[in-house]
Amino acid sequence: MMTIDDFRAPGPDLFIWPPIIRDGPLWFTKPVLLAVVCAVLVIAFCWAAFARPKLVPRGIQNAAEYVYVFVRDQIARPQLGADADRWMGLLFTLFLLVLTWNLVGIIPFVQFPVSSHIAFPAVLAIAVFLLKIYLGIRHQGGLLGYLKNVAVPADLPKGALGIYVPLELAHQFLFSFTTHAIRVFANMFAGHMLLAFFSSVGFWFLFQELTPLGAPIGLLGVAVTIIMTAFELFIMFLQAYLFTMLSAMYISSGLRTEH
Prior knowledge:
Order of helices and strands: HHHHHHH
Helix content: 55-70%
Family: Belongs to the ATPase A chain family.
Distance between the termini: 69 Å
Number of strands: 0
Pfam family, one: ATP-synt_A
Main location: membrane
Subcellular location: Cell membrane; Membrane
Number of domains: 1
Structural class: mainly alpha
Function: Key component of the proton channel; it plays a direct role in the translocation of protons across the membrane.
Number of helices: 7
C-alpha cells in the first residue's frame, strides 16, 4: 500500500516533451504544436474580426476592437506617441500571440503555457531586438550615430565615460534583450510548476490515496489550485501586457534618441 512518502512532486520533467510523431523530427513536440495552433487561432480571430468590418461592431469584431483600443491607448500611444498607429499591427499581434501562448496553460487537457519554454518568447524578443537596431541605425545617423545616442549622453562628464558607456552598451544590447524574454518565461514557468504541484497534491490525497488524514490535505490542494488558477489568469494577461509594452519601448528607442 502506498503512503505519503510515495508522493512525488512534479519537477522540471514537466517541460520535457518527446516528439509527437514516433521516429519523426525531434523538434516537433507538444509545445511546438501549441505554438503553431495559437498562431493560427490569432490569425483566424483577426480575420474574422476585421476582414469585413461593420460600422457598428458586434460579436468577434466588438471583442477584437476592445483589445485593439486597449493596446493602442495603454501601450502604443504612451510609448510611441505620433508613431503609434504605424506600429499597431505588430503590437496588437504580439499582445494576442503572447496572451494566447499563456492562456493555453489553463485549458483542460492542454495545460501547458507555450511561453514557459524560453525558446518561444526568445524568438519574439530577438525579432524586436533586431528591429530596434535596424530602426536606430536608420533614424539616428547610421551605426556610429546610433551607438553614440544610446551610450553617450551629451551632459555626461568625460571622466565617467569609461564606466557609463560599457554599462549602457551592455544594457542596450544584452540585458534588455534577455530580460525581455526571461520575464514572461520565468513567470509562466513558475506558475505552471505551482499549479502542477497543488493539483497533484489534490489528486493524490483525494483520489490516488484517500485516507481520513490525507483528505483535508487534498481538499486544501484543490482549493489552492483554484485560487492559483485565478491568480495565474491575471499574471498571464499582465505578462502579455508587459512584453508588448517593452516591445513598444524598444521600437521607440530605435526611432528616436533617448538622451
